[in-house]
C-alpha cells in the first residue's frame, strides 16, 4: 500500500477511523494499514477485544505496538472485554500508553459477551444485570485510578479499590466509550460515560433514535449536558465501484457520503469507524479514506 499524502492532525467535530481485526497472521498488514491511516489523515483506530479467540493477537499489546509506530492517530479497544481485564490494571495501561503517545488513547469498554468463552478462560459468568453493575463499578475504578488523589477507595460488589495509589495520570483525558445496546447499558452510558459505541450491524438508524433518547434522558437526570456524550458509530458495509444504490451503507461513494452526512445531521453521530465486510479490504479502506471521508468533511463543513 502506498502512502499518497500526509495531513497534520486536526481538531474536528467529526472523527473518522478504521475497525481492525487482530488476526495474528495479519500483523504485517495491520501495521501497514495503521501507518496508512495515520498518514492519510484519519483520526481513530478501534480494535476488537476477544482474548479467547485463539487466532487473535492480544488487543492491548497490538494497540501499543501500532501506536508507537504512528504519530498522530488515536487508538481504542472496540471494546475491551471487561470480565477478562482488571479495571485498575487496565486504567494504568491506558494512562501509560496515553503518556507514551502524547494523548492518543481512549478506552472502549463492554460488559462482556460470549460468556462460555469468558468462563473457559477463568472469567466470571455474570447475569445481564450483574454485568451492567460490574461495568458501572469498573468505570468508577478507572476514573479513580486516573485521579491525582494520593489514595482512592471504591466500594463495589464486583470491583473495588481499598487505598490504592493512582498513577500515572494520563496525558489527556481519555474518553470512556461504552459498547451499549440494552436499556440499562444505554442509561449507564448517559450518566457515567464519555461516549457511546454502537455498530451498524445491530444498531440501524431507527435504533439510534430511541437509544439516543435513553442516553440523553439519563444524562439530563444526572445533571449532565447530553451533548457531552460522543456518538462513535462502527459502520460496516461495502463501497462499490458502480453507480447502483443497494441501500444503507451499500453502494457507491455518493451513497456513503449521503448516509454519513445524514447520520451526523439527524443522529448526532460525531465519529465513524469503518469495517469493510466485503471486497478487497485495502481497496475498501482506500475508497473510504481518500473519497468518502474528504467528501463528508467538506459537506458537513459547508453546512
From TrEMBL:
Q: Which UniProt keywords apply?
A: Oxidoreductase
**Residue ranges occupied by any Luciferase-like domain in the UniProt entry:** 16-243
Q: Which InterPro entries match?
A: F420-G6PD/mer, Luciferase-like_dom, Luciferase-like_sf
Pfam annotation, one family: Bac_luciferase
Instruction: Report what the protein is called.
Output: LLM class flavin-dependent oxidoreductase
Species per Swiss-Prot/TrEMBL record: Nocardia aurea
